[in-house]
Amino acid sequence: MIHVEGLTKYYGDICAVDHIDLDIRRGEIVGLLGPNGAGKTTTLRMLTGYFTPSAGQITIKDVAMDDNPLAIKHLIGYLPESAPLYQSMLVYDYLDHVARIRGLKGDERPKRLQELADLCGLRGIMHKPIATLSKGLKQRVGLAHAMMSDPEILILDEPTSGLDPNQIVEIREIIRHIGTEKTVILSTHILSEAEATCGRIVIINKGRIIVDGTTQALTAGREQAGRIHIGLMGTDAQNARPLLGGVTGVREVDAAGESDGIARLTVTCQPGTDARADLYAAIKSTDWILVEMTRETKTLETLFGELTREF
Ligand code: ATP
To answer: Relative to the CA of 17, which ligand 1 atom is closest?
Structure first.
């Protein structure tokens, strides 16, 4: 669907995007993730045809951006980070105005506005002035704007930036729903945001791609910290240590003490090993009661920090 090769952008001497290669299939929801200044907005703006690359090629549905930028623009709906909305207009009038600009005629316009009101959750606010809406609702109006021409590709720059937690959940749900039919690329600097919405995560730092993979693979990598927290009843931590220490794949056992009648231990596994099944089997052979077993994961932010520091 989208093929990007050697995409590069210089602002004067600053290299904002540095030889990015990317292939995005139809129906993917891709999260473009990176710290501030990583080059996300610049990349998205080149994909929309808003910025001309300094070098490289963008091909969408086998059409090269250089050959037919207009045809490509018709395939894309774009929601910039701060959606420019006419604050004094009513939502309906604003979207009707956008529909006219997009060439929708006669009955097509109210029909499309109705569809977008349903899709983006705008039903109760169509006749309110934009200026009176919360940031979350304004963002939904921006989404409806981007979706007006029913584009095949939706590009969203930090769509949840500045929203409160409830609004974030609502926007995520709308994006996931849209993503069942469209190809979506969204940027964010919050890893959990990409994880919640996207099937694939592309991490960029200093203009380069440093990770490109499924969200599942990234999450699995996060679990390789190799520490397991265990809570037991019917024994004390010191007593349980030797048994757990003898389990295959266990490197070390720390007795973390007792609380609320539960003996707590932390088991460190050999690198690349998950000893949970064997630990469970060992505990099952005793008369202790296993009340907790949790595999420690690196926090998303830690992982993100490690990845962006390394490169
Ligand atoms: P943010 O999350 O802060 O929006 P970003 O990942 O979207 O960051 P970009 O906005 O693409 O990053 O910026 C990438 C680099 O290019 C940064 O170093 C930025 O300062 C620089 N830059 C961006 N726009 C311009 C511009 N118009 N002129 C000069 N430098 C720019």
So the answer is: 14
